[in-house]
Amino acid sequence: MNAPTENEPTPAQGNLATRYRRLRGRTEALAEPLSEGDMTVQSMDDASPTKWHLAHTTWFFEEFLLAPALPGYRLFADDYRYLFNSYYESVGPRHPRPRRGLLTRPPLAEILAYRRAVDEAMASLFTGGIAPATAALVELGLQHEEQHQELLLTDILHLFAQNPLAPAYRPVLSPGEPAGSAPPPAWVEFAGGQAEIGHGGKGFAFDCEGPRHAVLLRPYALAGRPVSNGEWLEFMADGGYRQATLWLSDGWARVRAEDWSAPLYWENRDGEWWQMSLRGRQRVDGQAPVCQISYFEADAFARWAGKRLPTEWEWENAATGLPVAGNFLASGQLQPGPAGGEGLQQLYGDVWEWTASAFLPYPGFRPAPGAVGEYNGKFMCGQFVLRGGSCASPESHLRPTYRNFFYPHQRWQFSGLRLADDR
């Protein structure tokens, strides 16, 4: 986040308190369709159980807001500082991430009681009045919980995909009829030149989104929509997963070691491709954006298509001035849908778009002091930037400068790609 200072403008405290209540309620609404068993199991090291998400987002407010800022506040449970700390070395030791699924205790009822207790204490904090620096930390906590709302859904999808019953998180939609590929995308050209990149001015941004700075762009073009499932099927049919020359060395090693032959959650049933979704198994929609692919796969496809991935600066330059509108969490669709319209389509929502840019600090970047400085800066090594948001992203969480980041082999998020080309 932007380092909080006493002079930083902050939202009105009444509005902040209202947003806090609504956002915390939305997290619990997302968990409501799940059983306690669903909320406890961990399907892989990269994912976390829903029960842990519910507790960790609560611990964040307790650790960084209530303990230092609310006089007389007492921790709900001393052990929670160890159990629900994610990666904050400055706070102290923590339960190993790969073993979060072993936390059958505390039970769900106790975690929900923890949330209620912290929410009541936060209400007291709002009532008593808070300093601008404290309000900035509340805003960080809200943005943090929105990140975990999306992670809660992608982690549940990964868990349910391991179940032979293919349970649906939300009611199953009609599987539909097989759909062909979307028409070839139009291309939108940009003149290049000097562009201002990064967050500047008022409003919240994570620390990694700044400082704002100038970059020099060569003339380029972006495809009018993300790559579709139909186009991905063509890549597969042409042996895309079998041609070593299309792949980065580490990516080819992953293909062979993990036997990749299609996006994650795809399954060939009697010659027809299906995919697991939050609404159960669905036929692969050829016109919808491809998703659940790694950076390695996105890069290989771009090379196969004779194009490339855009840099994050090209993406942000194209997005600047356009409305943040699209298929987000609030739509209830919970899966990417076909493109429609003219110009740059689906720039926001539907699928996160891999870029060719490594997640690195901008010129002049300095992490915030204290434990919150660990939020982004220490992860600026070995990861790649994604832009735009997905069908599981809260709309209010996104902006043109937002930088998501994952390791190049990770593929359980709603991650896709948009092609770029030189002009």
Topology:
Blueprint: H1 13-31, H2 36-40, H3 50-69, H4 80-83, H5 108-128, H6 132-161, E1 187-190, E2 193-197, E3 213-217, E4 220-223, H7 229-237, H8 249-258, E5 266-269, E6 272-277, E7 280-283, H9 295-304, H10 312-319, E8 326-327, E9 348-349, E10 352-358, E11 384-387, E12 404-406, E13 415-416, E14 420-422
Helix pairs in contact: 1-5, 1-6, 3-5, 3-6
**Main sheet?**
4 strands, mixed
Shape: globular
Distance between the termini: 36 Å
Rg estimate, integer Å: 22 Å
Q: Give start-end ranges of low-pLDDT stretches.
A: 1-12
CATH fold-level assignment of the largest domain: paralog of FGE (formylglycine-generating enzyme)
Relative helix content? 25-40%
Summarize the helix and strand pattern as letters. Answer: HHHHHHEEEEHHEEEHHEEEEEEE
What CATH first level of the largest domain would be assigned?
Answer: Alpha Beta
Q: State the helix count.
A: 10
Q: Do you know the CATH architecture of the largest domain?
A: Alpha-Beta Complex
Number of strands: 14
- Give average pLDDT, whole number: 94
Number of domains: 2
Strand ordering within the main sheet: 12-11-10-13
* Proportion of residues in extended strands: 5-15%
The CATH superfamily label of the largest domain reads: paralog of FGE (formylglycine-generating enzyme)
SS content category? alpha+beta
